[in-house]
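Data availability (excerpt). The following record was deposited with the supplementary files.
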Amino acid sequence: MQKAASFILDLELTEKLSLNSQYVLMKFRGVEQFPPIKPGQFAQIRIDGSPTTYLRRPFSINFVDTELNELWILVQIVGDGTKALSKAQVGTQINMILPLGNGFSMPLSNERVLLIGGGVGVAPLLMLGKVLHDQEIPVTFLLGARSASDLLELDLFAEYGMVFTTTEDGSKGEKGYVTQHSLLNTDVFRKIYTCGPKPMMQAVSNYAKHHGIDCEVSLENTMACGIGVCLCCVENTREGHVCVCKDGPVFNTNVLRW
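Predicted structure:
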């Protein structure tokens, strides 16, 4: 199957919402209609105004509103690049390359699916949840964070399925990690999608394998070019070494050497 083309676009920042001290939701609008974008694909964003940031930064596409022709990016402020991006003013033109990578696959039936996210890893799961919901596939979200203030977009996730949460300090939902949630004691899911810290995804992968559940993960390897040239994001799989940016970032866990 031929991969869809990617485009270099200047998008206008139309809204910026501070979710907490560490996360900012940024909404962008294009002059023309966005190309088809699959849940799990990402954008490489040029960072202006940061003298220490020379390369574009990859960001999962959080959501696409086709009616408003609006694209959302969830930014976690962790360094000079993301700090500079988060300070962009509404009305600023931001240059992006999108859509990049391969997205999540769709289930073969309408059996219940489970979407597990941790931290900023929840970003691609919102759009995935909407697409599944629109296809009348029952969706359940299991979202984890350190504390209640770090749980993101819960009201939006609730529009597309049931939402369960965990926090490490017990301030919301069940105390502990997502892989310790009582929901996983039930055997009702036939597909799991997950994105978040690698140890979390590995634990989810192990759970899925133990229970015979098909599982896809969205890897967050360090990416520089986004097109498979620089080899920064190489992952060793059962099919050989692959570039996460070009051959992923979504992989079925059966091909990963975890």
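Summary of structural features: The mean pLDDT is 94.
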